Amino acid sequence: MTKIISRKILAKNSTLKETAQILNTIQELLSSQKLAVLGTQDRGQPWGSLVAFVSTPDLKHLTFATPRSTRKYDYLAKDSRVSMVIDNRENLARDFHAAMAVTAIGQAAEIESQEAQALTELYLDKHPYLKNFLASPSCALVKIRVKKYSLVRRFQEVMEVYLE
């Protein structure tokens, strides 16, 4: 069940139309951006990593690739709780009013073989230039099962979408 909470208008129960509009905004942002910052942690110390990502059409999963020898992969193996921040800023003054960002909160795991083909195709549709990187035996394709999205726009308007 999807539940929307908007801190700006303090509505606990959004209408189906409002939910659809917010999910559409999130989908448009995720589709338009190629890079995100993955947040992991190690013994309470946060760590951010820039990753190329893709979202599934239903927004329930985000996928990225990483070599198994990286710090982020090691941290994910120890604690699967992650965040991913995607934004559309251009580093211009207008960003303070026009930019938006979404933070996805969820659990990450390396993709099992039965899922790999479909998610590999989805990932390579968005990032065809990473085909050789993804084909490397040392590369892992990781899927985040999103529990919540937090959308911030117009500098202070915050809406949370719970997917579980």
General description of the model:
With 164 residues, the protein is of the alpha+beta class. It has a single domain, classed as Electron Transport, Fmn-binding Protein, Chain A (Pnp Oxidase, Chain A). The chain contains five helices and eight strands; from the N terminus they run E-H-E-E-E-H-E-H-E-H-H-E-E. It has helices at 16-32, 71-78, 95-98, 113-126, 131-135; strands at residues 3-6, 35-42, 45-55, 61-67, 81-87, 100-110, 139-153, 157-162. It has a six-stranded antiparallel barrel with strand order 2-3-4-7-6-5. Strand 7 and strand 8 (157-162) form a beta hairpin. The longest helix is centred in the first third of the chain and has 17 residues, at 16-32. The radius of gyration is 16 Å and the shape is globular. The model is unreliable at 6-12 (pLDDT under 50).
Question: What is the topological layout?
Answer:
Elements: E1 3-6, H1 16-32, E2 35-42, E3 45-55, E4 61-67, H2 71-78, E5 81-87, H3 95-98, E6 100-110, H4 113-126, H5 131-135, E7 139-153, E8 157-162
Antiparallel strand pairs: 1-8, 2-3, 2-5, 3-4, 4-7, 5-6, 6-7, 7-8
Protein name: Pyridoxamine 5'-phosphate oxidase-related FMN-binding protein
Domain Pyridoxamine 5'-phosphate oxidase N-terminal: 25-150
Pfam family, one: PNPOx_N
